[in-house]
Amino acid sequence: MGRRLEAWHQMLAGAGARGVPALMGVCNVTPDSFSDGGRYLGTEAAIARVDELLAEGADVVDIGGESTRPGARPVSAREQLARVLDVVKAAVDRGACVSVDTASEEVAAACLDAGACAINDVSCLRDDRLARVVAGSGAALVLMHARGTQERMAGFSQYPDAAYGDVVADVLAEWEVAAGRAVAQGLSREALVMDPGLGFAKNARHSLELLRRTGELVQRAGVPVAIGASRKSFLAVVDRDAPPGERIGASIMAAVHAASAGAAIVRVHDVRATRQAIDLSVALGKEP
User: Fold this and answer.
1) Three-class SS of residue 140?
2) Could you give the domains of the chain?
3) Fewer CB within 10 Å: C terminus or N terminus of the chain?
4) Which span out of 137-151, 153-167, 187-201 was modeled with the highest average pLDDT?
């Protein structure tokens, strides 16, 4: 096992020993992400965001230089690296466990060389070479279920109801195909994390059903499961007019549910509030 993968597993084991999932804090170094686009675009602002996430208790800092919102246009590897590489280096220097949100093999290679221990791929391995790079670096791969590119993705939570039969079974089956391709590129199964891709090529009903059945995903995936519900549009089912920044209550409840169902990772924007809620949920469940 490579040192990056070993560090990744130690991070997951540390959270598990506390009876909680690892908290993956979001650092979007982009002008156009759906929730906080532009707030952390500059290197100084992004590094300050890393410091904030670590102070709030993030176990992983997830750094990305390309928006994954529906309709977002691709960002070149060169531009992604200009946005994120110095931020990754600074986070690693601070001792952070870093994942990098990219589908680019070039970006992945440079960031892994800089000390990142995982790649967070929201493309469902659109390019098999990404898995080869991760395998060669001895790192982890968070592999998210998706269909198609962000540029062609329908608007927020718009997707045909009939696109899935049993959404859990269909998502797992399609994810396994991508996982098999990753393994064929030399990546060990133990390096994989399964993310069902809430909001990606799914409508609100699909995403809510996947979240509701997190426990089933955990039982059937055969690898750790990551849940990223934070601030996403499907959460507006409980508050139709709430913009992303005002979906915090629903985001925290989603994280608590995912934690109680056995998710290994929850990806969140609001680390301190989520940590408090999950920790209290654990404390309330303990015998006095």
Assistant:
1) strand
2) 3-280 (3.20.20.20)
3) C
4) 187-201
